[in-house]
Task: inverse folding
């Protein structure tokens, strides 16, 4: 396999390997995480890791790599970027040609999240090839997770197997702030039903689109204003957005189905099922022929900033932060596996048509993770 000479060349290698999440319209025939997972496993094996692919779906593996100390481990710490990227449809640059211009490295995943992944891998390389490796008292794990961009399936599979750590660094572009809290995503399908009939005699049927109009009025005029009462001190209020709507099959048929998808961003302290049930009750009071079903639920993150390892990381990083988006951290996080998000780069560049990461941010990230590994070896909570 090729041997990158620095973190920039490593990121170029990663970006050049397509790993687009196949759900929705990927914008390319090259989907899945298999090829990227193989590259990462081989890279880590050359550094002495016990590294393997764990398939969650066909052609869609997690990477699990471990560096175990010769002495009893004082702690178990993990890096956990995701391997997949969002669609490349509509990009204005070549998605898999990692060009460098004006101090920026362009390409899909350069910020989200192959840039943070490259920074961590390069720090691991420097640590593994130094005398610190032989003296290590930390059990280090590197997790390359599949499916984060649609379903968090890789993180869920790992959590179901009982993965634990003293702290897991879920790698996202946070400008090296430690994100200890972020909102959760509750995606709901709302459906109204009616009675189909010929469009020339609409009085003999019941129009499901009209019913959905009443649903949307309730959401806009009652539900959304009421969300301001469900506020988190750091993350702010629960939010709700109607993202899609579809209904009917032909112009001359009264539609008997109409469907809308809504994106609810909930905060710690809000139970997803209770929120769904309450929303359905509110809507049915006005529109009896409505149902609300969960399409996807990623719970919010709330990691205790006073935990010793979290405190230590915060002292090394740019303090603590929150985020409106969701991540694998909330899926992995538990009492036995505290997790946070951190990484170089800006979330403002994630998912964009001309995605890039600043080279200085990438190099700063590699140096930060190197210093984190060094500090962790010297720290005993």
Result:
């Amino acid at each position: 396999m090729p041997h990158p000479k620095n973190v920039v060349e490593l990121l170029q290698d990663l970006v050049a390997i397509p790993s687009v999440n196949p759900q929705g319209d990927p914008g390319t025939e090259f989907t899945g995480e298999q090829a990227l997972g193989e590259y990462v496993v081989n890279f880590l094996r050359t550094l002495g890791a016990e590294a393997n692919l764990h398939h969650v779906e066909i052609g869609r593996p997690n990477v699990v790599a471990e560096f175990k100390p010769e002495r009893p481990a004082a702690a178990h710490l993990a890096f956990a970027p995701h391997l997949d990227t969002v669609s490349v449809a509509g990009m204005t640059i070549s998605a898999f040609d990692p060009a460098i211009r004006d101090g920026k490295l362009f390409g899909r995943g350069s910020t989200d999240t192959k840039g943070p992944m490259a920074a961590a891998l390069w720090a691991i390389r420097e640590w593994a090839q130094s005398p610190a490796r032989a003296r290590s008292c930390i059990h280090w794990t590197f997790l390359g997770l599949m499916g984060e961009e649609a379903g968090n399936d890789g993180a869920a599979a790992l959590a179901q197997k009982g993965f634990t750590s003293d702290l897991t660094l879920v790698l996202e572009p946070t400008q090296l702030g430690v994100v200890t809290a972020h909102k959760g995503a509750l995606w709901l399908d709302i459906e109204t039903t009616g009675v189909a009939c010929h469009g020339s005699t609409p009085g003999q049927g019941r129009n499901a689109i009209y019913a959905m109009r009443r649903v949307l009025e309730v959401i806009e005029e009652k539900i959304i204003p009421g969300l301001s009462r469900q506020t988190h001190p750091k993350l702010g209020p629960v939010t709700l957005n109607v993202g899609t709507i579809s209904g009917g099959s032909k112009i001359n048929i009264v539609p008997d189905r109409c469907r809308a998808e809504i994106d609810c961003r909930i905060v710690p302290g809000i139970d997803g099922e209770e929120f769904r049930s309450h929303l359905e009750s509110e809507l049915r009071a006005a529109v009896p022929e409505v149902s609300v079903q969960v399409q996807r639920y990623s719970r919010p993150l709330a990691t205790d900033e006073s935990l010793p390892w979290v405190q230590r990381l915060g002292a090394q990083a740019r303090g603590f932060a929150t985020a409106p988006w969701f991540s694998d951290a909330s899926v992995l996080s538990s009492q036995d596996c505290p997790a946070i998000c951190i990484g170089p780069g800006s979330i403002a560049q994630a998912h964009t048509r001309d995605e890039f990461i600043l080279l200085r941010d990438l190099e700063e990230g590699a140096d930060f993770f190197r210093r984190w590994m060094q500090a962790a070896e010297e720290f005993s909570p």
Q: What stands out?
A: Residues 184-298 form a domain with the Alpha-Beta Plaits fold (CATH 3.30.70.360). The mean pLDDT is 96. The two ends are 39 Å apart (CA to CA).
